[in-house]
Amino acid sequence: MHIDLNRNSNIxxxxxxxxxxxxxxxxxxIEKGAKLPSVRSLSKTLKVSLVTAVKAYSLLEKDNFIATIxxxxxxxxxxxxxxxxxxENDSTSLDWQLSITDHLPRAQFWRQNIxxxxxxxxxxxxxxxxxxxxxxxxxxxxLSSLVLKNPSLLFEYGPIQGDLELRTSIANYLKTKDVxxxxxxxxxxxxxxxxxxxxxxxxxxxxxxxxxxxPTYTAAIDVFRWQGATIxxxxxxxxxxxxxxxxxxxxxxxxxLIYTIPSYHNPTGTVMxxxxxxxxxxxxxxxxCLIVEDDPWSxxxxxxxxxxxxxxxxxxxxxxxxxxxxxxxxxxxxxGTVSASxxxxxxxxAAKANSDLGSPLLTQKALLPFLQSNFMEKHLKNLNSILIKxxxxxxxxxxxxxxxxxxxxxxxxxxxxxxTLPSWMSAESLLFExxxxxxxxxxxSTCYPSEPEFNHIxxxxxxxxxxxxxxGILALCSIISSFIDQKYSHNDIPII
Amino acid sequence: MHIDLNRNSNIxxxxxxxxxxxxxxxxxxIEKGAKLPSVRSLSKTLKVSLVTAVKAYSLLEKDNFIATIxxxxxxxxxxxxxxxxxxENDSTSLDWQLSITDHLPRAQFWRQNIxxxxxxxxxxxxxxxxxxxxxxxxxxxxLSSLVLKNPSLLFEYGPIQGDLELRTSIANYLKTKDVxxxxxxxxxxxxxxxxxxxxxxxxxxxxxxxxxxxPTYTAAIDVFRWQGATIxxxxxxxxxxxxxxxxxxxxxxxxxLIYTIPSYHNPTGTVMxxxxxxxxxxxxxxxxCLIVEDDPWSxxxxxxxxxxxxxxxxxxxxxxxxxxxxxxxxxxxxxGTVSASxxxxxxxxAAKANSDLGSPLLTQKALLPFLQSNFMEKHLKNLNSILIKxxxxxxxxxxxxxxxxxxxxxxxxxxxxxxTLPSWMSAESLLFExxxxxxxxxxxSTCYPSEPEFNHIxxxxxxxxxxxxxxGILALCSIISSFIDQKYSHNDIPII
Lengths: 496, 496
Prior knowledge:
2 copies of one chain form a homodimer.
Chain A: H1 13-26, H2 39-46, H3 50-62, E1 66-69, E2 73-76, H4 79-82, H5 108-116, E3 122-123, H6 136-149, H7 164-175, E4 186-190, H8 191-203, E5 209-214, H9 218-226, E6 230-237, E7 240-241, H10 243-252, E8 255-260, H11 274-286, E9 290-295, H12 310-313, E10 319-324, E11 335-339, H13 342-356, H14 361-366, H15 368-371, H16 375-401, E12 407-408, E13 416-420, H17 427-436, E14 439-440, E15 442-443, E16 456-460, H18 466-491
Parallel strand pairs in A: 3-14, 5-6, 5-8, 8-9, 9-10
Antiparallel strand pairs in A: 1-2, 4-11, 6-7, 10-11, 12-13, 13-16, 15-16
Helix pairs in contact in A: 1-3, 2-3, 8-9, 8-13, 16-18
């Protein structure tokens, strides 16, 4: 377990250690019941004072991540530890592997995905559109004949930066969204996730300050933490990232990069206001930092007009724009893009070369017929007319069946509804109960870079048909109601 | 320009700075004619003494990477600098981007690939098989009907670890090569390159010691340098990595990882002897480090038997085994694998999730018909019968036409011939001349993690048909001869 400590940061070392260990535990990278080093050994390895190590462990114990068994040591919390059994497993021939330290502090997306391996029938955790609503026949027919006509697509390396025909088509498509880019400024990636990685890995090193919204996209937090970034977070309100608070942070720290999802923010669904988009750009100029604008699903919209992207307002190459095509078109193709200019672009192309020498050609060619025609417009119109019904159904069910203490925002786009539970309720306990009924959702705590809030959940309404969606939401409402009933029945016990 | 300095290393800081800057220049990440910081500013930024900064610049100047223009400053070497013109370009609105430091010290594979953009007709730099020798019809027919039958392959996310059917087939295939792995131990990656990245990014951080062969695979050096590794190199002789020298390094340093290509080594074609394979495994155990065994093309073989892989000798989960399917099967599918066990495996799967959430499903399914049948055996038999003719042709042409001062080894497998020029000859100058005749090869200096040798070149004989191969090698022989003639004609000038 390698822990990157930023000794120049205002964040106390004990909190940094807490963050690193709690993230590893929450990601399942340190297993339940595993023995942790003693405070003395931790203080020695990390070159911190004994007081700091003790404080870090106290914080972890307070939040129930770890437990100390008198005379035995400190363990990751598990049922065995609670029951005071011997929590250590039998030794195996692979035990030496634990001495191989790693630089992977967090993988919460992975953790949530592992939970799905139990195959819940009602997958409200999915933040994308079900394949039955996507242009399967159209694209597969095209691809089927293309591969016969041009089999070498499977047998030749494509250009590192991506297929030029696809980049040109994407540039044309983005123009319809008011984003003016040339094909030369676009790099094709394996989904948006690789795009975020290319940016983080190229520009962020241990201790660099990255600012993210809180909450934000789980797997983007995973990536920036992987690079050893010091992540500072800014809350989101109805108009998006709180620029007033951002400014305060920038005054005290020197951010290298600000990551934002301005349109139908993940997970809250918020749209950043026009004024804040402009202010954000000004702040990035003033503090000489990069903006990463992640735009995974602005195509899923229930509004008649859309706000210009921050990239379209940017005249100085300050914004790195990430556009994915998985969430509303073809998840299996894993096509994303990262766009930039000048030496920022140049370095991202070099990073793509180092990462995997380039994406497969065939899946790049798959999207062409859609992008080169007006099918995309028709597809999106049709898709959104279906999705708005699902959203409305979801909202109606929540209104009709959710206990009054539970709140949510009405998303004007994107695939998610962000639900806030009573402050005492734990989304993790809720998930545990939901999974036993084959239902999955995303616990909101995974969306916080630090200081997680445990009383939010994200549900997606685009992956399930109306029947399943109804079943899922009703079950969720019923579980939450029973949690509330239970709480109040306990509270009702008269104190004599 | 961020430079990772390992202050605990025996390598002098001036040499570390030299390495970092020279790599950026050789990779084109700092452009020709660009102005470098003054020694005073460098010493301040990197917190090193002025003497150290001066020494680093002297080394760079000695090797002709940079030049100082009196009264102006220090510049990356370029024609303008040589001619004492003003080497600075006009300022543009993107100039601020240069102040955004990056963590990307090297991208030599990318650099070489950019050179290919001039599209040389005779591409002897390619280290893979031409698509006309690959089972294009067979695989494309299968895929064409598969995509019609099951279009959702394009529209659904696959498992993060990779398609189970493919992993099972690969496990069965690897058994024919005496590598015994279960499907659960295999992770599907975007080519071997991503596999190397997953390993490096998970287990290597700034200053960790990685040992590589010298020379070795260019793009693997790019990756380990990207992670800030301190790379130490061990020469290769006829039996592969010099284990006696490796042992000496291990005694002085604490390696975290040893990267090796034991079978038909890239670029030299050497096969590591059985004894050394065993010794390497023992050393990894004794020094508690990982072995990464990269096996890109042991299928391309002109021998009747093969030595067991190091992975197959490993009983304690010490070896991470990387097997690619691009070099002899379907480069365009970008299918590679990384295999490990226990917590090493677990962490690599988490790393794959963080990297791109999983590879495209369709290209994974493309390889199935081959792996699930005996087509692979037939394909390889047929392929190798063609490739041995090309190798023999290449060797005969070299013997008949290459000047006597030039040496090469006879490869028993793999796609390359490693050629050693007279020690005074620069492969870079040779490449410059060759490219003007539309010929490309790989200059050997890119294959050295440090202290490059400039008098080697790597040519591939599997990408070109016999006609082009002949044309390329004859041209190469002619250029080299003319370089030698020129050298001796200069030397012949009588000194009066």
